[in-house]
Amino acid sequence: MYSFLQRLGRSLMLPVAVLPAAALLMGIGYWIDPTGWGANNQFAAFFIKSGSAILDHLGILFAIGVALGMSKSRDGAVALAAVVGFLVVTNVLASDSVANLLGIKPEEVDRGFSKIDNVFVGILIGLISAWTFNKFHQTELPAALAFFSGRRLVPILVAFFAMILSVILLFIWPLVFGALISFGEWMLGLGAVGAGLFGFFNRLLIPTGLHHALNAVFWFDVAGINDIGKFQSKEAVKGVTGMYQAGFFPVMMFGMPGAALAMYHSAKTQRKKAVAGIFLAGAVSAFLTGVTEPVEFVFMFVAPVLYLIHAVLTGLSMFIAATFHWTAGFGFSAGFIDYLLSLKNPNANQPLMLLVLGAIYFVVYYVIFRFAIKVLDIKTPGRESDEEIAAMALSEGDEVGVADEVTAGTVGKTHKYDALAQRLIQGVGGADNVESMTNCATRLRFELKDNSLVDEQLIKQTGSAGVIKTGKKNAQIIIGTHVQQVADAVDEYLK
Predict the structure, then answer these.
(1) Average pLDDT, integer, range 314-343
(2) What is the residue range of the signal peptide feature (predicted)?
(3) Which letter, b or e, does each residue of 119-144 get, where b requires 16 or more Cβ atoms within 10 Å of its Cβ?
(4) Which of 213, 230, 252, 439 is deepest in the core (most CB within 10 A)?
């Protein structure tokens, strides 16, 4: 189950990755026409409509993303199957169709069916499509039907399974929708406290990758909250909508750089030059894009108490922003780029106060991390023992030779990530030990035959921020924001 949830969390990143496009388009529209939502300017309307086209169809995007992420091969057939399945369910269960199927008046149809085109249904269809592909994509039919064998069979079966799902949802969807609405209303009823709890658990789930599932409840139209979508629309309540986003800005733009600076200043003098790049890259990534994992994974496992403090401070930031109704929104994460785009959004409320809170958070994170590292003698990067430093110096001195030797044995590629990719494959026990490899926003995720063969020391020598092993077959390597390029290089050598 744990492995399944991890893979699901990873799969959710694919559709989430298109949200920056929506945020950029709508952000430009708001800058052109900050009060009229495009009514006062045709160019603004063009950009806003282009962005809303993405946000208004997240259900089908999640269906495709989950199908691709959960299938054994990122084959186009599984994406096509997801589209087919989603269209079947959303058309069969449209309000007019339900009224006809149940023999009732349109006004008597449960309101849940007006929201059937949603992320929750998209995830269900994605899972069904992936399972169907994994099980039947190599199935051979009798000669008379041979044309429909293999991958062509998958969309046909998914359409059939989607019909069965439609019958099931016809009777249970009103109950599911009602439960989701109740959950969302309960969290909304908690107000600022609910926002704080969301922020706290969001950070606690980062090590498992399951925070994406939690985010879907609050950020998208799963439980009726849809904080990201509503923030970009006229449905927003100024000062309230955005409460599940705003408090992340002080943490990601200022708190994480403050923590990175504290860890750099805490490093031993002879190691500061070696670790400066790690902390600088992590701090810049967090500030600009809101991707905090490169910094978080530096201290997450060596100092769990620091990570717990980090989670508490995140919850506190969410609570403070929600209490004072400071709101801003994002399309991807709470970095400077998204913050800048949201400034002209009509729904943003006192967003400059988030910068004030951020400045305070920079100092708070810096002071707490410096104090805790010194008092608890936490071995963050650059504070290793003299023996470990000597071993690292030896390996770093030999690294070029090893990389050259590895590269010499390849098919002659010269891509900048080739040597790194080969070292990482070597670090996870070699290509023969790899069953599959995928990536999310910052991590390589390996499914291995035996993760006891993982050489964590070798992997860390490549500059990776950390290694996580779960169960007996799964391992994750924290790469950073350039993970896609590294994943492509690794994939080439695995092939």
Answers:
(1) 90
(2) none
(3) bbbbbbbbbbbbbbbeebbeeeeeee
(4) 252
| Neighbour count for residue 336 (Cβ, 10 Å) | 16
> Long-range contacts made by residues 173-180, C-beta under 8 angstroms, separation at least 24?
173/93, 173/110, 173/112, 173/113, 173/116, 174/110, 174/112, 174/113, 176/112, 176/120, 177/110, 177/111, 177/112, 177/115, 178/112, 180/120, 180/222, 180/223, 180/224
Please list the residues that pair with 439 across neighbouring strands. Answer: 444
Q: Mean pLDDT, to the nearest integer, of 329-333?
A: 80
In tens, the pLDDT along 387-423 reads 444 444 444 444 333 333 333 333 444 467 888 888 9
**Pair of tokens at residue 328:** 């801003």
| pLDDT confidence bin for 252, thresholds 50/70/90 | very high
- Whole-angstrom distance, CA of residue 411 vs CA of residue 463: 24
The catalytic residues are 440
pLDDT at 141: 85
Residue 468: pLDDT band (50, 70, 90) is confident
Rounded CA-CA distance 165/153 in Å is 18
Spatial contact of 9 and 3, defined as CB atoms under 8 Å apart: no
Answer positive or negative: Cα dihedral of 111, 112, 117, 118: positive
E strand or H helix at 467, and its extent?
strand 466-470
Q: How many CB atoms lie within 10 A of CB 189?
A: 9
Q: What is the pLDDT of residues 59-87, one digit of tens each?
A: 899 899 999 988 887 788 999 999 999 99
Tokens 């007996």 correspond to 472
> How far apart are alpha carbons 486 and 6 in whole angstroms?
20
Tell me how far the alpha carbon of residue 328 is from its chain's centroid: 19
Query: Taking residues 257-280, what's their average pLDDT?
Result: 87
pTM, full prediction: 0.61
Question: What sections of 252-303 are H helices per DSSP?
Answer: 256-266, 272-289, 293-299
